[in-house]
Amino acid sequence: MATSGGIGEDRASGSGDWRPYFYVGIMILFGSTTAAAARYIVRELPPAWVPVVRFGISGLILLPVAGDRRILARLIRRDGLLLLLAGCLCVPINQGFFLNAARLGPT
Questions:
Q1: For the range 50-58, what are the long-range contacts, defined as Cβ-Cβ under 8 Å and sequence gap of 24 or more?
Q2: Main-chain phi, psi angles of 9, to 5 degrees
């Protein structure tokens, strides 16, 4: 029994949703170039600018996606202090290890 939409959708008709495949393809493309791009950027930019550029670009990309969401506003309103604390602690630690590994390790 085929249903319209959802998990039980009939894929034989060829009208399946292609968006998950597109997003996985983009994720693979970006994920596979991260180490080489980081290695190049670490050599070309001063170390303090690397996180600024990296988070600036990703923030600009995510701004249209997150800007229209009421859920994001509710999350920030409810757990804003925890998000700020996690960002202040986790991001520098993660970026420190990632950028040092990109600078010192082979790609």
A1: 50/95, 50/99, 51/91, 51/95, 51/99, 54/95, 55/91
A2: -65, 140
The answer to whether 95 touches 103, Cβ cutoff 8 Å, is no
Q: Is 14 left (phi over 0), alpha (psi -120 to 50) or beta?
A: left
Q: How far apart are CA 10 and CA 16, in angstroms?
A: 8
Residues 6+ apart with CB under 8 A from 41: 50, 53, 54, 102
**Predicted structure pTM score:** 0.45
- Residue ranges of domains in the chain: 19-104
- pLDDT tens-digit map of 77-98: 899 899 888 888 877 788 788 7
State how far the Cα of 35 lies from the Cα of 101, in Å rounded to an integer. Answer: 9
